[in-house]
Write a structure and sequence with these properties.
The chain is α+β, with helices and mostly antiparallel strands. It has two domains: 16-78 and 123-220, no CATH class; 81-120. It has helices spanning 50-65, 83-94, 99-118, 142-146, 158-180, 191-202, 206-209, and strands at residues 19-23, 26-29, 34-41, 71-79, 122-132, 185-188, 224-225, 231-232. It is flat.
């Protein structure tokens, strides 16, 4: 009896993401390239005077011409999520002793909540992505890639990683210093913020309703299933994997899912009160 050919297993969504690790705020791609993201607070250029505009344009031109490595300017637009703001406001209103202020505050919370549900209020954020390409000889699997064997994940030794992280830090410092000279505030995204940014880019709809937990609870090795179905954990240092596309009916690879709260136990029925029997008298039943 011939066996039926088994269908090939469909690749996971994480295999289509070009990010394999986020470590110390640095994003590692499948080809071994390193990226770090800077968040830039914009200024209102239209309100500047003509002289200030010319000065800023000249400084920006000198900043771009002085770069010796590539950068990418990203403008990320998404729907503004005011849920955390309303939650914090509700907590403060609950502690307000003045009843009149409480009433006005609750009306304001209802107004903002209804306004955001009826209209799409967009929020724009500006980022600068700094790139660094390690030498090919420092990437694991370079010779196999050269001769046709594709290496899925590029890894570095701890010594090479510290060296490349230092080089990336110099590039980031150069960009931050140049933008600060233009009067712009620059913040470097840490690991948690970088993962949240990637999660929002790959899952724009789910990011507004399904929030990520802290990065410490997301750091774990990849867990696979054996032939018997028992989970096994491969040896290696735990790494932070980027979040894959969220799945509404299950747990996506690399995305932590918060367990639903357990239902409260049913209330016990009230015990009947003891009734004192009459001791004789005319009210006692006759035999």
């Amino acid at each position: 009896m011939t066996k039926k050919p088994t269908k090939p297993q469909a690749p996971s969504t994480q295999q289509h993401v070009n990010v394999v690790q986020v470590k110390q705020g640095i994003i590692v791609t499948r080809t071994g390239s390193l990226r770090q993201v800077l968040k830039v607070e914009p200024v209102n250029f239209a309100l500047k005077s003509d002289q200030d505009k010319e000065v800023m344009i000249g400084q920006y031109q000198n900043f771009i011409n002085s770069l010796t490595f590539p950068i990418q300017i990203v403008i990320h637009s998404r729907r503004l999520d005011v849920t955390p703001y309303l939650h914090r406001l509700s907590q403060r209103v609950a502690q307000e002793p003045n009843e009149l202020l409480q009433l006005h505050a609750y009306e304001y919370i209802d107004f903002v909540s209804e306004l955001t549900s009826m209209t799409n209020i967009m929020d724009k954020k500006f980022y600068v992505v700094v790139g660094y390409e390690p030498p090919p000889t420092a990437r694991k699997g370079f010779l196999s890639n050269l001769f046709g064997k594709k290496q899925d994940i590029i890894s570095f030794t701890e010594t090479d990683w510290q060296k490349h992280a230092a080089e990336m830090g110099q590039h980031v410092g150069t960009i931050a210093g140049g933008l600060a000279g233009l009067g712009l505030k620059v913040d470097t995204l840490d690991t948690q913020e970088a993962i949240e940014l990637l999660y929002g880019v790959y899952n724009p709809e789910e990011a507004t309703s399904e929030k990520l937990t802290e990065v410490e609870s997301m750091q774990s090795s990849v867990v696979s299933l054996t032939a018997q179905g028992a989970p096994t954990q491969p040896a290696g240092t735990p790494v932070t994997t980027p979040p894959a596309t969220a799945q509404p009916t299950g747990q996506g690879a690399g995305v932590p899912v918060t367990a639903p709260p357990q239902p409260a136990p049913p209330a016990q029925p009230a015990q009947p009160l003891p009734i004192k029997q009459p001791q004789g008298g005319s009210d006692a039943p006759k035999q």
